[in-house]
């Protein structure tokens, strides 16, 4: 384990495996060099960038267990080419992240954080908070209708919103209208929820053209990865009132947040708390532990990512696929 993880993960793995807590070493680099040749599995969170250069330091590596559903910090292509299985934690955080997305929608459209600031500053005594915008009559466009996207859509329908979506392909088992292009989705909706994976393929996918298509009554909600949205274009769109507002749980260079966003009142900002409840983080942590226990017992992993499916066995300990 290169960096600290949740106590449930650390304690669960320490009880069942020969766990190397690399961050506790006086000289982590020297400690890594001393154990790298014997490491068969790595447990990582989003704070560890596991690229090919890092992973190839472990000749007997068989499994990388990621804490989180997004795994863009792991070079899954390298792992697949070298017979290494990568796992993540899907399913257990869908509902929590969907709740956060709807919370951001409500907070942004109704300007709830600004209303609370108005009260706390003692301004209510001098006058009512200005009227806000509404959810009534709005259409939600979802970029990425996966498990979390579907959970968001279900909640949106309960609020009376029309739901449409865009993704790499049309899904035959849903009734929502499919938009073949992202610009087309943005033109057809006025709440755009981003819940697509991060990585090179989606970097700056939501750009100035998409924001212009979203329009002056449009709201952008991002609970995916900060890299999916062009932050410079977003700041300009907010300043120029090209769009109405934004609700953001993620940023391009977390935990750094662009000062320009902090200065804007029509933006709701959260510190990447989409799945951050005790209940959900414990479930995610247990899935990390369980995937490594499966590896230890030479059993199929519970949640391998698409790029590294279970092939019936882990790669040979000799270090060859």
Describe this structure in words.
It is a single chain. The protein has helices at 7-16, 28-35, 52-55, 76-81, 94-109, 112-120, 147-158, 182-188, 208-214, 231-239, 259-262, 278-296, and strands at residues 41-44, 63-66, 85-87, 139-143, 162-166, 177-178, 191-194, 219-222, 245-248, 267-269. It has 321 residues and is an alpha/beta fold. The protein has two domains: 7-91 and 278-296, Rossmann fold (3-Layer(aba) Sandwich), CATH 3.40.50.720; 94-269, Rossmann fold. The strands form two sheets. Strands 6-5-4-7-8-9-10 form a seven-stranded parallel sheet, with helices on both faces. Strands 1-2-3 form a three-stranded parallel sheet. Helix 4 links the parallel strand 2 (63-66) and strand 3. Helix 1 (7-16) packs parallel to helix 12 and helix 5 (94-109) packs across helix 7. The longest helix has 19 residues, at 278-296. The chain is globular. It holds the Pfam family 2-Hacid_dh_C. Residues 19-305 form the D-isomer specific 2-hydroxyacid dehydrogenase catalytic domain. Keywords: NAD, NADP, Oxidoreductase. Belongs to the D-isomer specific 2-hydroxyacid dehydrogenase family.
């Amino acid at each position: 384990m290169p960096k600290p993880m949740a106590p449930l993960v650390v304690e669960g793995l320490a009880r069942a495996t020969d766990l190397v807590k690399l961050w506790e070493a006086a000289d982590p680099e020297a400690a890594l060099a001393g154990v790298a040749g014997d490491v068969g599995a790595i447990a990582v969170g989003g704070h560890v960038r596991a690229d090919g250069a890092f992973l190839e330091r472990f000749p007997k590596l068989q499994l990388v267990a990621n804490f989180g559903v997004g795994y863009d910090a792991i070079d899954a292509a390298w792992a697949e080419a070298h017979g290494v299985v990568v796992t993540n934690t899907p399913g257990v955080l869908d509902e929590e992240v969907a709740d956060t997305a709807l919370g951001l929608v409500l907070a942004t459209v109704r300007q709830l954080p600004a209303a609370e600031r108005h009260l706390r500053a003692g301004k209510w005594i001098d006058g009512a908070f200005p009227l806000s915008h509404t959810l009534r009559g709005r259409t939600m466009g979802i970029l990425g209708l996966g498990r979390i996207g579907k959970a968001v859509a279900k909640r949106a329908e309960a609020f009376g919103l029309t739901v449409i979506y865009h993704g790499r392909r049309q899904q035959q088992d849903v009734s929502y209208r499919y938009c073949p292009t992202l610009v087309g989705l943005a033109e057809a909706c006025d709440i755009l929820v981003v819940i697509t994976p991060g990585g090179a393929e989606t970097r700056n996918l939501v750009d100035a053209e998409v924001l212009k298509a979203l329009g002056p009554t449009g709201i952008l909600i991002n609970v995916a990865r900060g890299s999916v949205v062009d932050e410079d274009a977003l700041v300009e769109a907010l300043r120029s009132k090209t769009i109405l507002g934004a609700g953001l749980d993620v940023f391009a260079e977390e935990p750094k947040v662009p000062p320009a966003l902090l200065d804007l009142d029509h933006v709701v900002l959260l510190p990447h708390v989409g799945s951050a409840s005790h209940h959900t983080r414990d479930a995610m942590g247990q899935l990390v532990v369980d995937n490594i226990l499966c590896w230890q017992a030479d059993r199929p992993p519970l949640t391998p990512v698409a790029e590294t499916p279970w092939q019936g066995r882990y790669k040979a300990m000799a270090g060859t696929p």
